[in-house]
Design goal:
By secondary structure, the chain is of the alpha/beta class. The protein has twelve helices and 16 strands.
């Protein structure tokens, strides 16, 4: 019988270390050609000012997982209907026979898999002695990025930079209480960037958040926010100075303005991208090679991450007897 897993079920079943391992495995399978990632499909629903996005993927290897994340976006829902603007579920199938295994809420799962991508990047690209993390952005994704970094490095100080100071203050308090780190909200971009061993950008910014001249040697940057061809969180100078690693080459060259804009301006060439992170995980290409290297991981988010993490959630649900069986 297939399972229905609510958001609360997913929260109980999924922990960050498991999410990091699953996302890392997904990246490796993508690099080794054992994954299928069709282009996302977007279905407009103009009559109701909405749309539906489908993100399917298949992962081979021992994971052998098939699924899709379905996300609806109705921007006027909160004001007109009292519903969330974004709603979504992941549908998981048995990769060997196509049978439906589970339907699960996508909200918490998406937040965790996106945070996990930063954790994977920190594992392979951040210095071992990284202690200070600076995060730009104080939205939903921010605490998950901090949690993932804490899983991989002994972070003891966090700076939060946000265009909404009140939100930055609230996030700093939450990080202190949840993780026991010394977290501080600040509007001093120069100080926060210069202090960072790991710097995470988790915003919807259209223009760069800081100047590359502020970056200290050896900093690792994870860019997981803006993913539109005309939007970028980091400037061309950062891309030029950094060892650039991507989640998937084709996806980033189609969607990541952080890379597309300097390429179009002639300031950077796609051939300079160091690697897909899956190649580093597989051991075919080195990650960080020197303490003074600046590394930049750019992620636009892939359906394979959702399916990989959903497979983990489903496996734990079976072991723990979680979820509701659907009559099918």
């Amino acid at each position: 019988m297939p399972l229905w897993l609510t958001r609360d079920d997913v929260k109980i079943l999924l922990d960050m270390p498991s999410a990091i391992e699953a996302v890392g495995e997904a990246y490796r399978l993508i690099y080794e050609g054992e994954a299928e990632l069709p282009v996302r499909a977007n279905v407009p629903v103009a009559r109701h000012d909405g749309s539906l996005m489908s993100m399917p993927a298949y992962l081979g290897g021992e994971m052998d997982a098939l699924g899709a994340k379905l996300i609806s976006f109705y921007g006027t829902n909160p004001t007109r209907r009292g519903l969330p603007a974004i709603q979504g579920n992941v549908v998981l199938f048995d990769g060997s026979n196509g049978a439906l295994l589970a339907l699960m809420d996508a909200g918490y799962l998406t937040a965790m898999r996106t945070g996990a991508s930063g954790g994977v990047a920190a594992r392979y690209l951040a210095r071992e002695d990284a202690r200070t993390l600076t995060i730009f952005g104080s939205g939903v994704q921010a605490p998950y990025q901090v949690e993932a970094a804490l899983c991989e490095r002994e972070i003891d100080r966090v700076f939060v930079v946000s265009r909404t100071p009140a939100n930055a203050d609230a996030l700093a308090v939450k990080l202190n209480e949840t993780f026991g780190v010394s977290a501080q909200a600040t509007v001093d971009v120069k100080m926060a960037v210069e202090a960072a061993d790991i710097l995470v950008t988790a915003t919807s910014a259209y223009e760069p958040l800081f100047e590359d001249a502020l970056l200290r040697p050896g900093v690792h940057i994870s860019g997981i926010g803006s993913h539109l061809p005309y939007a970028s969180e980091v400037d061309a100078g950062t891309v030029q100075r950094a060892k650039v690693v991507v989640d998937q080459m084709s996806a980033c060259l189609a969607e990541a303005g952080d890379l597309i804009r300097p390429i179009e301006d002639g300031a950077y060439n796609a051939s300079q991208i160091h690697a897909e992170i899956g190649a580093i995980i597989a051991g075919d290409i080195p990650g960080r090679e020197a303490d003074d290297e600046i590394t930049f991981f750019k992620s636009v988010g892939l359906a394979a991450q959702d399916v990989a993490v959903a497979r983990v959630v489903y496996g734990k649900a079976l072991k723990e007897g979680a979820g509701i069986e659907l009559d099918g």
